[in-house]
Amino acid sequence: MAMDASKTISGSFGYLYHEGEWMTNVTAFQATPAINKEEVMRAGTRWVGHKAVSITGTGSLTQFKITPALAKRIGQFSDDKSPMFVTELIGKLDDPDSPEAKQRVRLKGVQFDSIPLIQYEVGSLVTEEIPFTFSGYEFLD
Q1: Domain residues for 82?
Q2: pTM
Q3: For 41, which DSSP code?
C-alpha cells in the first residue's frame, strides 16, 4: 500500500506551552529520552548483551527573541541559596490533515542548560537555541 503524502505531519502545527501560555515565538522544539545501557558479557557467546540502567532526557527549543522574560526566569538563581529554575513544558503536534497523529507530551523537571543573555547579528532576526534536560514525561493524548 502506498503512503498518503497528505498524512505526513507538518511541523507548522507544532506548539509549545509553558505555564499554560502558548510560546508563539518558538520555531523548533525537540525532546528525546535516551536509554542508557551497560554492556553485559555472557558466557558461551561472542554477542554482548545490554542492560538498561537509566534514562536521560535532553532537548532544545529555538525561538525568536521577543523579550528577555525566559532568560530572566532561567537566571533567577545565584551563588547564594536561590533555587535552580525547574519547570514543565507541554509540546503539541496538531496537524489538521493528520487528526489521528495528534500528540501532546508533558515534560517534567525541565532544567535549562544555559542562560540566553544577549546575542545578535546585524541584518538578521535574533533567534536563540536553548538546550535543556528533563527528568520525566507523560503522554497527554
Answers
A1: 26-36+53-139
A2: 0.86
A3: E
C-alpha 54/C-alpha 38 separation (Å) is 9
Which grid coordinates belong to 85?
Answer: 529554575
| DSSP H helices in the chain | 69-74
Instruction: For residue 12, tell me if it sits in a domain.
Output: no
Residue 78 scores a pLDDT above 70: no
Query: How many domains is the chain built from?
Result: 1
pLDDT in tens, 97-138: 887 888 999 999 999 999 888 989 999 999 999 999 999 999
Query: Is there a domain that residue 47 lies in?
Result: no
The predicted structure's pLDDT at residue 93: 93
Give the whole-angstrom CA distance, residue 52 versus residue 37: 4
Average of per-residue pLDDT across 2-17: 88
Q: Considering the domain boundaries, does residue 17 fall inside one?
A: no
C-alpha 104/C-alpha 92 separation (Å) is: 4
Phi/psi of residue 19, each to 5°?
50, 40
Dihedral angle, C-alpha 11, 117, 119, 86, nearest 10 °? -20
Can you tell me the mean pLDDT for 1-18?
Answer: 88
Report if residue 16 sits inside a domain. no
